[in-house]
Amino acid sequence: MVRSTLLLTFLCAVLGASACSQSKPLQPQDSTPPSQQTSFTITPPAPPAQAAPGVVLHRRWEIAVKAGPSAREDITVNALLPGTPMAGSVVVRAPNGALVPSQMQADGQVAFRAKAMKAGAQAIFLAEEGGTPSAPGKGGVLAMQTPEGVRLTLDGKPVLTYQIQRQPGRKDVPPEYWRNGYLHPLYSPAGVVVTDDYPKDRLFQHGIWSGWQKVEFGQSHPDFWDVGRKKGRAATESVGPLWGGPLRGGFGSHQFFTDMDGQTGATVLRESWSVSVFRDSGRAPYFVVDLESLQEALTGPATLGQNPLGGINLRGNRDWQGAGHSLFLTSEGQDRAKAQGAAAHWCYLGGKSGGKLAGVAILAHPQNSKQPEAVFVDPDEPVMGFAPTKNESIVVRPGWPLRLKYRFVVLDGKPDSKLFDRLWNDFANPPAVDVRLLESK
Questions:
Q1: pLDDT of residue 342
Q2: Is 293 exposed, middle or buried (0-12, 13-18, 19+ CB in 10 A)?
């Protein structure tokens, strides 16, 4: 009961209230282990809430946004509006009365754009029920089901795809390496693919994926990092809901990590993902992707052993193969040689593909386990991430899940340290928000 309550709370918080009633787990009809199931549900988005017939609502909220000790450029603000406003029926006005781009979400929060603010400044916005919200750009963020999985786009440009097909479209990949539940391809705004899938030298690596190498589960030692060792499997259980809007869009998913070492077929961990793409500003020459992971032990404790790699990882474009064909940098100014195992707020990997320079920065949230997190980067392969288990083991017990949160910034051209620092601060220390209900009719 504790585990179920925690999972429900997590989904409500990061996906919205629709996730609590709309996301449906796989219900196997036989005794096949979850890692070998090939079918699962994809839950479509829930319809927006509507007022009862004949009921006219007009409520207003005052939203005070405080920049805090740091100056802010254009930023997306989230505010929880008391009174459960109807989805899609709230507009937001700036201090000068002008409408600002906004999006009402199913969890009662309104997302809206705030312009630049000086350090210590405060701005008062007004949210009103009724009217048509301002929408920047064309199309916004859309989440669409495709044969490959779930595709997210921003103003019609592809951003990423979540893979649900277990069997790759290549004959050179043995079945023990097949898996789903990862992000690939991931695109830059100019359309450069910055990830790889089933690279020939590391068939177990996939775009943005999750995996642990040194795991203890009872007397078993499953391996969810290199599944080719046949000691562990990872497979999607369910996907949904899908959601979108002018400022944000995304989906939720669940996957099983199954022991194939000693307790064959036993579920070691169940991982829930919330993936969202959002508009950072109307002129931003980069994509922003947030990924939140909740990993639960279902039947007994699982120890994620001390190890310099494992967790949420990124496999870069195959054209970046070899240290001389890629760029690497961290928030502490460390290069590839000095960054391995060192603590950092963010790390960046990029290179040229088709003559175009692009790359990805991973920003680690300060609430993640074992902060500050250590960087993992391969000396030659285009692989990087943060390693929560670098300095000590993590024990995941029933009712005590592991939470990890990362932001991925994908951009064309050279890495921009100042941009990454600013976006990390907005991610780690968002503006304070105070909301007051002014009237309810």
A1: 93
A2: buried
Q: Is the pLDDT of residue 211 over 90?
A: yes
| Closest by CA position to 346, among listed 294, 291, 386 | 386
- Give the per-residue pLDDT at 42: 57
Share the mean pLDDT of the chain: 86
Q: Which two tokens stand for residue 310?
A: 């494992």
Domain 138-428 fold is: Beta-galactosidase; Chain A, domain 5 (2.70.98)
The secondary structure of residue 81, as a DSSP letter, is -
User: Per the omega criterion (within 30 degrees of 0), is the bond before 82 cis?
Assistant: no
Helices (H), 392-435: 417-428
Q: Is the pTM of this model over 0.85?
A: yes
The model's pLDDT over 2-29, given as tens digits with 9 standing for 90+, comes to 344 444 344 444 444 333 333 333 332 2
Q: Where are the strands (E) in 298-401, listed by range?
A: 302-304, 311-315, 326-330, 346-353, 356-364, 374-377, 383-387, 394-396
Q: What are phi and psi of 7, to 5 degrees?
A: -65, -45
Residue 64: is it exposed, middle or buried by C-beta count within 10 angstroms (0-12/13-18/19+)?
A: middle
What are 217's two structure tokens? Answer: 């589960």
95 within 8 A of 54, measured Cβ to Cβ: no
